[in-house]
Amino acid sequence: MKILLFVLMAVLPTILQADPVDPIYGDIEEDQYIPRKGSNQQPQKLNIDGMPVYPDDSNLRQLNIRQSKSIFYVDISSIRSSTKDNIVRMVIVAISPHGARTVTYEGFDCGYRRYQAYGYAGSEGPLRPFEEQGWKPVIDQGNGRYRATLIDNYVCAGFAYAASREKILARMQNLKPLTISSKLKNQD
After folding, report:
1. Is the pLDDT of residue 181 over 70?
2. Fewest beta carbons within 10 Å, which of 5, 97, 113, 161?
3. Residue 101 dihedral angles phi and psi, to the nearest 5°
């Protein structure tokens, strides 16, 4: 024990006097990980030139979300899938039990299982961009459960890559369209 204490006392002053950019350790910035081309890297923040148009009811398809009071729809005409940044973008419509409608334009990153909300609208358009946009994790709880359903069942190909628009539409072909009776049911 005395030998260990002696060694520590001998080495400690040398460690405390070390230059923060010591050539032994190198510059921390030089040692940061830089992904190779084609690897699953962080997607860049989307610079949106404009928002999609307000969804037409004929393009809405109902998602089956367990334990949800609201009914969620996807605007199938708004679906965009990009292999460049591995993001699927689409317009989502949530209709509350009282008939209130909330429309969001969102992006889903399959590789990191996260989403970003780009814009929103109420019961009527147009969609407006959110002032602050940032990536958030997709969780399978509460009102965010529809995002987990989308990622798990429709928008991702093999958990890491965005599926093509055609594949997403094929997966959604059995989803029910918004009907007059579902509109009236939501207004009760």
Report:
1. no
2. 5
3. -115, 130
Burial 13-45 (b: 16+ CB within 10 A, else e): eeeeeeeeeeeeeeeeeeeeeeeeeeeeeebee
CA 108 to CA 103: how far, in whole Å? 16
Kind of pairing between the strands at 161-162 and 156-157: antiparallel
Query: Which stretch of DSSP H or E encloses residue 80?
Result: strand 71-82
CB 96 within 8 A of CB 69: yes
Among 52, 96, 122, 75, smallest CA distance to 188 is for 96
Q: Is the pTM of this model over 0.85?
A: no
Strand 71-82 and strand 60-63: the pairing is: antiparallel
Segment 8-12 mean pLDDT? 57
Collapsing DSSP states into helix, strand and coil, what is residue 8? helix
> Alpha-carbon distance 188 to 184, whole Å?
7
Which amino acid is residue 135, in one-letter code?
Answer: W
What average pLDDT does range 114-119 have in this prediction?
A: 95
pLDDT at residue 160, as a whole number: 83
Say whether pLDDT at 7 is over 60. Answer: no
Q: Are 151 and 113 in contact (CB under 8 A)?
A: yes
- C-beta of residue 108 within 8 angstroms of C-beta of residue 115: yes
Is residue 32 predicted with pLDDT exceeding 80?
Answer: no
Residue pLDDT, tens place only, 155-180: 998 778 999 999 999 999 999 998 75
